[in-house]
Design a protein that fits this description.
The complex is a heterodimer of chains A (484) and B (95). Chain A is α+β, with helices and mostly antiparallel strands and 484 residues long. Chain A contains 15 helices and 16 strands. The longest helix of chain A is centred in the middle third of the chain and has 20 residues. Chain B has 95 residues and is an alpha+beta fold. Classes of the chains: A alpha+beta (484), B alpha+beta (95).
């Protein structure tokens, strides 16, 4: 029997993502209303964002700057000439019956996002537009609502749409792509990129084709993806659904499907008829943007070191693993904290271990973040130094870290208060060692007879006699000397 | 009647305009004349002319990112045909 082209084992997935990022400006895109999440419904609105006749939009300079900086951080080409267009459609979330967006002359084109594997996903474009209002559906579901309630606080919030080329090949790559975008946006400070508050949103275009084929298969757009995990799960589900279609000899229909987190499935959304006929035309209320080289190069110099550059530096200069460098750089504030600890302690490796280990652990337990914790980098560094110079044991340090991070105490004070300092006094340690050897003649004999384990037992006995305070390295050294 | 390369019924539907048969015919003939003007313009050589999206000789008209007072909530919703609580009330979206 001949092999069926397109059977599951022979297909590959082709994924493109459209990511919407709300910009962290003080005011909206085309009016002075405050740009904020969570205000009482319809309190952050004015004639412009409510689309009242006679009102005129004026573009927010900061939003233009933020979009260009995002584009620069992703290696995009910034357009010399750009304009705003009207995207026309009737839907209650847009009071004007059009959304101001950019059609054929977006602010940036090209650019790419590099995944941890080194694979580069190219970008098509990034354009600037205004966010829509929020529909609150009365009743138990959209389909059963008798009517729709609308809050326009979000209408007119500056929004950038980042469109990737269809170059992502798996759910995992999609999640990695999003994580990298999120990290870059939070580093340059243009968005708070919170998926649960909707300041980072993602739609996925998914298709499958025979492995190695050039032509793209019929694509399906997946909406309603509310977390990184749901992006991954929905794409996995959709690829499997499409493979099953092909297996059963069914045709894949081009459509929009909604992800349902509860059931873990996608379902066909009744296509808004003619929805893609937006009749774009240049917005006559707005004039074009021609930003000029001087302005663009000033913005370029204001960009901070980006996560990819930081990761490379951590691996090269600090000798950290790629994985550790990735964890430490995922949030800029965390990376800044780590770097301050590394600099103040002069011990980047220990700083990395503490940040990813016990510091993270005590913060998680207290449901706090580095920003909300009272402990500062200098205190963590002081603790690392206390271990490095033998004042306290690593074990004792683990007892101190909680007071340092949560209560903001100085490590030296906690050590003094709890009597955690080690004894490094040679005479005192030697006395404990001799006492332990004397009291455990059997173990001494079995060690000398070749039982290595007896050595650890003796170390334990010395530590017990010193009530944990003897410098364990000194104890080991002295024991070896005495037994050797 | 001049040839109209667009579907009047389709455009009317997109614009949510319920045209009568008489109106459709009238607009169709008016569109036809517009397309004749456009055909005349297409005869011009514009190879070296930058596409014009805006005739006002200005660019980069931007505002500083400053918060200005919003409308009072009551004022914002007072003209709405229907409201419920603090919301604008609309017909349901999906049929």
């Amino acid at each position: 029997m001949s092999k069926v082209i397109g059977a599951p084992a022979d297909t590959e997935a082709v994924i493109g993502l459209e990511v919407h990022v709300e910009l962290l400006t003080a005011s909206k895109m085309f009016c002075g209303c405050r740009n904020a999440f969570g205000a009482p419904p319809n309190t952050l609105v004015c004639p412009v964002c409510l689309g009242m006749p006679g009102s005129l939009p004026v573009a927010n300079a900061k939003a233009v700057e933020y979009l260009c900086k995002a584009g620069m951080a992703l290696g995009c080409t910034i357009a010399e000439y750009s304009k705003f267009d009207r995207k026309n459609y009737f839907y209650p979330d847009m009071p004007k019956n059009y959304q101001i967006s950019q059609y054929d002359m977006p602010l940036t084109t090209g650019g790419s996002v590099t995944l941890p594997s080194g694979k580069r996903v190219n970008l098509t474009r990034i354009h600037l537009e205004e966010d829509t209002g929020k529909n609150v559906h009365a009743g138990e579901s959209i389909a059963r609502s008798a009517y729709t309630l609308v809050d326009y606080n979000r209408a007119g919030v500056p929004l950038m749409e980042i469109v990737s080329e269809p170059e992502i090949s798996s759910a995992r790559e999609a999640e990695e792509y999003l994580a990298e975008l999120k990290a870059v946006m939070s580093y340059i400070g243009v968005s708070d990129v919170k998926m649960h508050e909707g300041s980072l949103r993602c739609d996925a275009n998914v298709s499958i084709r025979p492995a190695g084929a050039r032509e793209l298969g019929t694509k399906v757009e997946i909406k309603n993806l509310n977390s990184f995990r749901s992006v991954g799960r929905a794409i996995e589900y959709e690829i499997e659904r499409m493979r099953a279609c092909v297996r059963e000899g069914e045709r894949i229909v081009q459509e929009t499907r909604g992800w349902d987190e509860g059931s873990g499935t996608t379902h066909s959304m009744r296509s808004k008829e003619l929805a893609h006929d937006y009749r774009y035309f240049p917005d006559p209320d707005l004039v074009p943007l021609e930003l000029g080289r001087a302005l663009l190069s000033r913005w370029r110099t204001e960009l901070p070191e980006l996560p990819a550059a930081k990761r490379t530096r951590y691996v090269r200069d600090f000798g950290l693993s790629e994985y550790d460098a990735g964890v430490l750089t995922s949030e800029r504030s965390d990376a800044d904290f780590f770097e301050a600890v590394a600099a103040a302690s002069g011990n980047p490796k220990q700083a990395a271990n503490w940040m990813m280990g016990d510091v993270r652990k005590v913060l998680d337990r207290a449901e706090m973040t580095l920003a909300s914790a009272r402990g500062r980098p200098e205190q963590v560094a002081a603790l690392i130094t206390l271990v490095a110079n033998g004042t306290i044991s690593g074990k004792a340090a683990k007892e101190v870290i909680e007071s340092v991070m949560i209560d903001g105490r100085q490590p030296a004070d906690v050590v003094a208060e709890r009597g955690l300092a080690q004894t490094s006094d040679a005479g005192a340690v030697a006395a404990f060692v001799d006492q332990a050897l004397h009291a455990n003649a059997d173990s001494v004999a079995s060690y000398k007879a070749g039982k290595e384990k007896a050595f650890e037992f003796l170390v334990g006995q010395v530590m017990k006699l010193s009530r944990g305070k003897a410098n364990v390295e000194m104890v080991r050294g002295l024991l070896k000397e005495r037994l050797g | 009647m001049p040839e109209v390369p667009i579907d009047i019924a389709h455009v009317a539907k997109l614009a949510r305009l319920p045209l009568s048969a008489e109106e459709a015919e009238r607009f169709s003939s008016q569109f036809g004349r517009l397309f004749e003007f456009i055909r005349e313009l297409q005869a011009l050589d514009v190879e070296h002319v930058h596409p014009t999206a805006q005739v006002i000789p200005l660019h980069n008209v931007l505002r500083t990112d400053e918060v200005r007072p919003c409308l009072d909530h009551e004022a914002a919703i007072q003209n709405a045909p229907a409201t419920e609580g603090p919301y604008f009330k609309m017909p349901r979206i999906l049929e």
